[in-house]
Structure formats: structure tokens, C-alpha cells
Amino acid sequence: MSETATSARERMEDTTVQVQEKTRGALEAVRQSSPVQSYVMPTFEWFRDRYNKSPMMIRVTMLTFGLLSAVPVACFSGFMGVVTVGCLIVGGIAFAIVEGGFAMFASAFLLPALGLVLLITGALSLFGLVIYSVYRVASYVVGAIWGPGQRRSMERGAERIGQSAEDTLRG
């Protein structure tokens, strides 16, 4: 029975040494990471020294407390994750409903205005096409009747009228 106790004590000490080595390596990395850590490290060093100087029964009690605290913390973290995802889903659905309401507003009031603008633009475009077609037909007829010279003269007159209209609009 004494061999078992000695073996368990040796294993505990070996495990403690390994944990301390890993902790030292992590602490060195943290020390070099940021100047803010220089304010946290003295307090941590004090706690670590107190832990190392305490009797084995206190160490075991603290280790047990840490391990037993990890289970509720893990459960709380999991629950918090599930609740957060649920809230994000509900918020996404609410956002979609609100945006759907805005889309309904747009379809009820803005689309008819857009349709009216489309009709006016189409009518003006059709009117411009008819005027341009009449101009081309008149130019062809005049050119066929009076000859090519008169046609050029008429086109130059039309260009002068267009230029004077542009000048009037600009200035």
C-alpha cells in the first residue's frame, strides 16, 4: 500500500512539473506579447508563488476546484452559444420581415411612379423616332426631286438650325 502511495505521489509531482514547464513557456510568450501584460504578470507571479509554496493537500484541492469549475463554465459557454445563434436566427427573420415590408412599400408606391416615368420616356422616344423618320424621308424626297446639291443645302440648313438651338440652350 505504501508503494501505491509513493507511486501516486511521484506521478503527481511529475505531472506538476510538466504543467509548470508548459505554463512557464506560455507565460514567456505572453510576457513578450504586449506591454499591458507587464501590469498583469506581477499579480500572476504572486499567485503562482503562493500556489507553489502551499502544501500538497491545498494544491490538490485547488486543482479539483478548477477541474470541477470547468464543467459548469463549459455548460454555460455551450448554452450561451446556442442562445446567441438562436437570437441571430430570430433577428435575421425579423430583419427579412422588415425589409419585406419596405419592399411592399416600394412596390405599392414607387413602382407606379417608375412605370409612369417609363411611359413618358417611351412616348418621348417614339415621338423623337417619328420626327427623325420624317426628316430622313423629307431629305430623301427633296434629294430625289431637286438633286443632290439641293439636298446638301437643306442638310446644312438643318445643321445650322440644330447648332443655333444648341447655342440657345447653352447660353
Largest sheet: none
| Termini gap | 112 Å
- Tally of helical segments: 4
Question: Could you state the order of secondary-structure elements as H and E?
Answer: HHHH
- How many whole angstroms does the radius of gyration measure? 44 Å
Give the helix proportion (percent range). Answer: over 70%
The chain-level mean pLDDT equals 82
β-strand number:
0
Structural class: mainly alpha
Strand residue content: under 5%
Shape: rod-shaped
Any overview of this molecule?
The protein has 171 residues and is mostly helical. The protein is built from 4 helices and no strands. The longest helix is centred in the middle third of the chain and has 91 residues, at 56-146.
Quick recap:
Helix content is 95%, strand content 0%. It contains four helices and no strands. The protein has helices at residues 2-33, 37-53, 56-146, 148-170.
